[in-house]
Amino acid sequence: MKSHIWRPLYVVIGLVVLILIARQFLVPPSFGIHERGYMYGWYRESNVDEWKKYPVSYMSEEYCKDCHNDKYAMIMQTSHAIIQCENCHGPAGEHPSNPPKLEINRSREQCLRCHFPLPYPSSGRANIRGIDPEKHNPGVECSMCHNPHKPKLEGMK
Amino acid sequence: MITRRDFILYTMKGIAGLALPLTAFEILSPNKLLAAKGDTSKVRWAFLVDTFKCVGCGFCVKACKLENDVPLDANVTKTWVERYVLTKDGRVHSDTPKGALHGFTTSKIDLGLGKFQDIKKEDIEKAFFVPKLCNHCENPPCVQVCPVGATYQTPDGVVLVDRKWCIGCGYCIMACPYGVRFFHPVHKVADKCTFCYHRITKGLKTACVQACPFGARMLGNIRDPNDPVSKIIRTERVGVLKDEYGTRPQVYYRGITREVI
Q: Into how many domains does chain B fold?
């Protein structure tokens, strides 16, 4: 073959070799086709461990009950026992070191999530007692009168 | 003119070639290889939603957003709760204001653009809440379309996004028939429910399951015959969303009707 064909061909071959060498350094070894085949299993396997290391924020009431056992024991006697502490107090994270103080949601809207009456058939919502927020002491935080850890009317402040 | 020596050589080559079975030319697919080896994964995560129990409080949505660092104010969320109100005139009203981040604190249906529709109590025929999240399909269309291999399914069935690999093209967001994917406003990549992979692999419940006061959400391993979720899926009447798409979704629902899409 003539040299004017070979010369550009050398350039192309050189480029391909360069790209293949660069690929060796740029693509991590765990990237490739895994168990589920090319269609679903083409990925970087080390990413699975990266996801596993994602920090946990919600610690559950099991984490709270050792230090705050008085509050825990109180709410456990009531119908509010099903509600996690962190639903109102916010995620504990590494509390008490970080954050040292949790911000409590005392808003009326927080209580209305369940206690706004929606009499929907075939939904559990219909069985929860509710109030009309426009008529029932509007503008006042519910916890002014009701103790959320002791929601029965006898527990009113 | 063919020589005697050549004739014998050609004949031998021809016979050797014919002796090769056709299957020897087949390229082995990893799928078939895996099937032949037997699926070794002992865990396949599946989700169960009981719409009879859901009251639409939205604690799950809030917990999910805070656990997984999805900005609270941004109009994107990994899980949300839909309200369905079916009236006697045969109409279906549904809404999910802010994905039910603050629950449902009004009886008015949010029509969007600041408009609301009040529905009289006596007109309601059926009404209920349906929590939604990623279905972690057995055949995830979002994974098929990813051009760079940034989204994938783990051997235990969870569909994840590699945030370092994602180029943000948005194909997966368009491909998902359930609309569970979104563009993360901070990380600038496609994002979705991970079944709280960082929690379930440590033996914890997902943030939404833990936050639900009514037990409307459950996560389990369908490969384990004694798992409570696996038992319900096997023995009770459960449904999935958009079955006709062939995605084989792994979020099962109790108590949904055909109006739920």
A: 1
Q: Do A116 and B105 touch (CB under 8 A)?
A: yes
Whether residues B67 and A37 touch (CB distance < 8 A) is answered with no
**What ipTM was assigned to the predicted interfaces of this complex?**
0.89
Q: Are residues A32 and A89 in the same domain?
A: no
Q: Evaluate whether residue B201 is within a structural domain.
A: no
User: Are residues A46 and A70 located together in one domain of the fold?
Assistant: no
Residues A82 and A150 in one domain: yes
Residue-averaged pLDDT of chain A: 92
- Asked if the structure places residue B93 within a domain, the reply is no
d(CA B47, CA B221): 9
- Chain B: residue nearest A108 by CA? B105
> Which domain does B179 fall in, by range?
141-191
Which residues in A lie closer than 8 A to residue B53 (C-beta atoms)?
124
**Count of domains observed in chain A:** 2
Residues A66 and A131 in one domain: yes
Cβ-nearest to B55 among A56, A87, A128: A128
Q: B165–A44: do the CB atoms touch at under 8 Å?
A: yes
Residue B123 falls within a domain, yes or no?
Answer: no
**CA-based nearest residue in chain A for residue B151:** A43
Q: What is the pLDDT of residue B159?
A: 96
Write out pLDDT tens, residues B35-55: 666 666 789 999 999 999 999
pLDDT tens digits, A13-28? 999 999 999 999 999 9
